[in-house]
Specification:
mainly alpha, Four Helix Bundle (Hemerythrin (Met), subunit A), about 0% strand
Length: about 130
Amino acid sequence: MGFELQAVVWTTVILVALIGFQGALVPVNQGFAWGLGSRDAAREKTALQARTARTVANHIEGMLVFVPLALVAAMTDISSTLTIWGAGLYLLGRVLFAPLYLLGVPYLRSLVWGVSLIGILMIGYETVRAAIG
């Protein structure tokens, strides 16, 4: 398995961990009965729960762009130094972004988000270049 696909796997692992953390916050903050019930009556989220929901949403949005590009790179054998570095930067950015966002760290989290964006752009450049031949 190439590095781009390994990055897809690890990005998915991060998402599963984030969703697990998000789910674990429900019984802690709203109680088991509400968490296991129908949740028809909304309960106010804590600041950490709201940050966690935004982190999950941001991670999914990034994956919606990264995963197809990484799959194209892997499936069409256009893997290159640029796509490998791009996948690495994306993965590094995501690994660092999640805890920084969850902890409410400003500025630095935006910088590491930018690192993951640069990774996406590197893979995107190679896939578009291959597509237009």
